[in-house]
Write a structure and sequence with these properties.
This protein is mainly alpha-helical. The chain is built from 7 helices and 3 strands. The chain folds into 3 domains: 46 residues, no CATH class; 40 residues; 56 residues, no CATH class. The radius of gyration is 19 Å and the shape is globular.
Length: 147
């Protein structure tokens, strides 16, 4: 991400996976994190995070390697946090997506989830969410076995 990706309190970018434009509201908690990095901002086209500031933007391979290295470092930090917090489950950047899906499953309509995930087909969203939606199945089971 670069500073110029933020306009009118929104993050605006194009997903590499499907080349679709994305515009997301910046949550207040995220604004606080951005403020921390803003002191290092030199220009609007600067990368926000330190690892990418070292990358040569003209070389996609260099950006890929720097991003992968930063993700590995982030995941290592999450493991350290899990140890300190006595969390016995694996934590990673990818697991965060699953955590979101698990929390959102019973609260957000599938059409909105499709939009948030940027899935082109609703079936993809429904199949993905099927791993996380348990409330209705639990209630159905309880209604049958409840004595």
């Amino acid at each position: 991400m670069r500073w110029l990706d933020f306009k009118d309190d929104r993050l605006q970018y194009v997903m590499h996976k499907n080349n679709k434009p994305v515009s997301l509201k910046i949550p207040e908690k995220a604004k606080a994190s951005l403020k921390f990095y803003e002191q290092e901002k030199k220009a609007s086209n600067d990368f926000i995070f330190p690892d990418l500031k070292k990358a040569n933007p003209r070389y996609k391979r260099d950006l890929f390697i720097k991003t992968r290295t930063a993700t590995k470092r982030f995941n290592n930090y999450l493991k350290q946090i899990a140890t300190l917090a006595k969390i016995d489950k694996s934590l990673s950047n990818h697991i965060a997506r699953h955590s979101f899906a698990n929390i959102a499953g019973d609260k957000i309509h599938p059409l909105m989830l499709q939009k948030l995930y940027r899935h082109s087909d609703l079936k993809t969203t429904i199949n993905y969410q099927a791993n996380f939606i348990h409330k209705e199945a639990d209630e159905a089971l309880d209604s049958v076995v409840d004595f």
